[in-house]
Design a protein that fits this description.
By secondary structure, this protein is mainly α. The chain contains 12 helices and 4 strands; from the N terminus they run αααααααααβαββαβα. A 4-stranded parallel sheet has the order 2-1-3-4, sandwiched between helices.
Length: about 300
């Protein structure tokens, strides 16, 4: 099992506690992800080994000095048991909760880093099982505090969409794989292939995702609207927002707090939103904006 690690020379050197924290959170997520289907196969093992090899040059530094030998020992028989995973997770969680590290990231940042690690883990063998999708949904459903943060809303909404009818088709699995590929740095992966990701993303396109049952505040918040409402004209929606203490701007900007997506009376638009404004809102979220993409039904529920 070999890989040319010179291709990741641009990977940042781990000199700050914040960077160590991110690396360990990613490992926590990956370990959770690979065991979501209750089977750790050889491809998933190679992804964990790859994480160790990427950081092996730092093995003399804490916490890698403890984590890497523990993983090496666990994998000496080329098998990773549930007990061994729990031992590694226990050590990793002690690291990220240590007084020397926990001031760098709050629970939101740590959880989002772990979410990306989980996605990496469940995609490690390039196969997406229904049990992994369901386990990811359970993990996200228990973390309401991540609502409003990218990419939680986007992924959670997509999971709700594909699970809605109780059957997850191959097309739906491929759609998820295409979207999950956005959150995996293939330079840091042993198995996930950049070309295959691109091929899937060319076949399955998602323009934007509405938040699920978001908390909407009106006082001093800026709203925008896209699409066509099945219940009111845009001017009437703007008046409602103003009367409730908010303000309305037809354009999406850095100051926009909520983008309402009209459904044209079609409930099938609940979680699949397309258009220029939505695309701009998603780009803003990717760059750290807290703008929330709200489906019209949730807006009327709040009103």
């Amino acid at each position: 099992m070999t890989k040319d690690y010179h291709e990741v020379d641009d990977y940042r050197t781990f000199t700050a506690p914040a960077e160590v924290h991110k690396a360990v959170n990613s490992l926590i997520g990956m370990l959770n992800g690979v065991q979501f289907d209750n089977i750790v196969n050889q491809q998933e093992l190679s992804e964990i080994i790859n994480w160790c090899n990427l950081h092996r040059r730092l093995q003399r530094k804490f916490p890698f000095s403890e984590i890497i030998p523990l993983i090496d020992n666990a994998l000496s028989d080329n098998i990773l048991t549930e007990e061994e995973i729990q031992d590694i997770l226990w050590l990793c969680k002690n690291v990220v909760h240590h007084d020397g590290f926990n001031t760098y990231y709050d629970i939101v940042t740590s959880s989002l880093q772990q979410l990306q690690g989980i996605i990496h883990g469940i995609m490690a063998d390039n196969i997406l099982h229904e049990s992994e999708i369901n386990q990811l949904y359970v993990w996200m459903d228990s973390r309401d505090f991540l609502k409003g943060f990218y990419p939680f809303d986007e992924i959670y909404s997509l999971l709700i969409t594909v699970r809605r009818d109780g059957v997850i088709s191959e097309d739906e699995k491929n759609l998820l794989k295409a979207y999950f590929g956005n959150f995996i740095d293939t330079r840091m992966s042993f198995n996930v292939n950049a070309f295959e990701n691109t091929e899937l993303q060319n076949r399955y396109s998602i323009g934007g995702i509405c938040a699920v049952c978001p908390e909407i505040e009106f006082e001093d918040k800026v709203f925008s609207f896209t699409g066509t409402s099945g219940r009111a004209k845009r001017k009437e929606i703007a008046e409602i927002i103003t009367n409730m203490g908010g303000s309305f701007n037809n354009n999406v900007t850095l100051k926009t707090d909520y983008l309402i997506v009209g459904n044209e009376g079609n409930p099938c638009w609940a979680f699949s939103c397309y258009g220029r404004k939505v695309e701009k809102a998603v780009d803003l979220r990717k760059n750290g904006s807290s703008i929330v993409i709200v489906h019209e039904n949730d807006f009327w529920d709040e009103v």
